[in-house]
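Hi all, long-time lurker, first post. I run a small reading group and we've been trying to get comfortable going from sequence to structure in the token notation. Rather than ask abstract questions, I figured I'd post a concrete chain and ask someone more experienced to write out its structure so we can walk through it together at our next meeting. Sequence below, copied exactly:
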Amino acid sequence: MPITVSSVLRSLQGIANATKSTEEELSKIDFNVALASSEQNNIVNKAHSEGLSIEEWNSLIEETMSDLDETSLHIASLSVTIASVREKCRQNQPATPEDLDRIWTTIRAALTSKNLSRNLFTANRSAQGLLAVPLCSLLKDGSIDELFRLHVWMPDGKRANPDFTLHSHQPFAQSWILAGEGRDHAYQVDAVEDVDEATNAGYALAWNDGKGQNATYKTHQAYSIVQNTGKLFKAVETSIEKHR
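-- Answer (accepted) --
Happy to help. Here is the structure in token form:
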């Protein structure tokens, strides 16, 4: 699927937010300069209009950015990869197994590299016991508009309090399994008044990034906590689906 330069630059800014990259670090990764210095015919017009394939973008990085340090190269590659995921979401296109393999290879390389000038990513643990690594955080008016995270589903028995495993997702969230497999248990949840009918109590999440704590999700949260709302619910399991 073609990816325009504006989409790649948008993802680059989001990755900068997620990795706390400085303007000086970002200035090294100039895709417009890379396009202008490429020997490929008509690549500039194509990148701005119809877009380039992910293979063409990766080839451009190899051709024109070989003198960058490894940290900058990983950020550049992630920008292209996240842009491809973002465009698939926006155009409601499914990700193929080949797409997911490419995405995971790029993310894993950046996470496990031993030659980075600094740690790019920070993992945090949610109240449900899931590990999350923010990869790209796009802001609007100072708040998160789009967020791409790597989630690590911990095995049963290795999470936090099992009483909090049942939780709701954001309505516009979309997920892909990049490696391994997991089981998703879906529930029908209804509010009830009678305590004898209730199976669960309702809790609200609050996040803390070291500067303050409130209900607004933070890209670089230090931790999250749950607060009892006093509301009662009845939850009935409706399905179990395996994802791999």
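A couple of things your group might point at:
The chain has two domains: 5-112, 124-243.
Residues 70-90 form the longest helix (21 residues).
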